[in-house]
Amino acid sequence: MTGKGRLLRDKMAESGLVHIMAAHSPLSARLAQEAGFDGIWASGFELSALYGLADVSLISMTQHLEMMRAMAERVDLPVVADIDTGFGNAINVIHAVRQYERAGAAAVVIEDKSFPKVTSLVAGGRQELLRIEEFQGKIEAACQARTDAGFLVIARDEALIAGLGEPEALKRAAAYEEAGADMILIHSKQRTPDEVESFVRAFKGRAPIVIVPTAYPEMTAARIRALGKIRMVIYGNHAIRAAVTAMQDVFAAILKDGGIQNVDKEIVPVGEIFRLQDMDRVKIDEKRYLR
């Protein structure tokens, strides 16, 4: 049992709202921890981007699981694992939940799309959802598979993404809560928070709500708290976007300047990378053990 699920639950109970930052590597996870976030989102989208692949179920469970494990080993924060559709049907979900729990995850998020999924925010993407009853079976399987009662099973409701409207989103959320989901993640690609806010106000269930405000960035913490039902906000792709922005700027500057003489003053020194690699601890261990 990891205990990280209980830690995440305690953070939500204490603060009322936890802020979870996406990561795609142990380094980005450590930076998120040092920045002060409450947890890490082991993002399938970010890992796909790291490999230069589309987020359409091309990354295997093994690839994602190993990266999630590596992140969990390098940070003290709870890790929320984005396992897309659960890598198959309910049988696959059972295997996945057992593996992710053993690897140190605090929670898994499973979405109600068909496999292979297409990333939610791409224009014109295929967004096919499972039958409600089939996805209920996957949620029930996930809940039964966990060995730590603190481990969170979060059901991701994609009805708004699929253009099926609020009544269908509410129907699905209620069914997923009935199946045992600890939290409901409602997703939207509208450019304003209105659609999500309307859903949250209309939702009559007891399960806390999770949002990912990538498409509607003006959804501030104050606005989220005012709704009263949201307990987790995930910043779903900002680590990889920040990394790409920085690399594009630095690479272009080096070519423009004909060298690194200018950018060298704008980026962190090598010593900062050594710190993040714990090189001081390596040197101490060398003195102690290498004879």
Explain this structure:
It is a single chain. With 291 residues, the protein is an alpha/beta fold. The chain has helices spanning 4-15, 26-35, 44-50, 61-74, 90-102, 132-145, 165-178, 194-202, 221-227, 238-257, 270-276, 279-289; strands at 18-23, 39-42, 79-82, 107-111, 152-157, 183-186, 209-211, 230-235. It has an eight-stranded parallel beta barrel with strand order 1-2-3-4-5-6-7-8, surrounded by ten helices. The protein is globular and about 60 Å long. The mean pLDDT is 96. Helix 6 (132-145) packs parallel to helix 7 (165-178). The relative contact order is 0.12.
Structural class: alpha/beta
pLDDT average, as an integer? 96
H/E element string?
HEHEHHEHEHEHEHEHEHHH
> Which regions are unreliable across 5 or more consecutive residues at pLDDT < 50?
none
What's the alpha carbon Rg, rounded to whole Å? 20 Å
Report the sheet-strand fraction. Answer: 5-15%
Q: Main sheet: which strands, in order across?
A: 1-2-3-4-5-6-7-8
Count of helical segments?
Answer: 12
Assign a percent range to the helix content.
40-55%
Q: Write down the overall geometry.
A: globular
- Main β-sheet description: 8 strands, parallel, barrel
Oligomer: single chain
Number of strands: 8
C-alpha termini separation: 38 Å
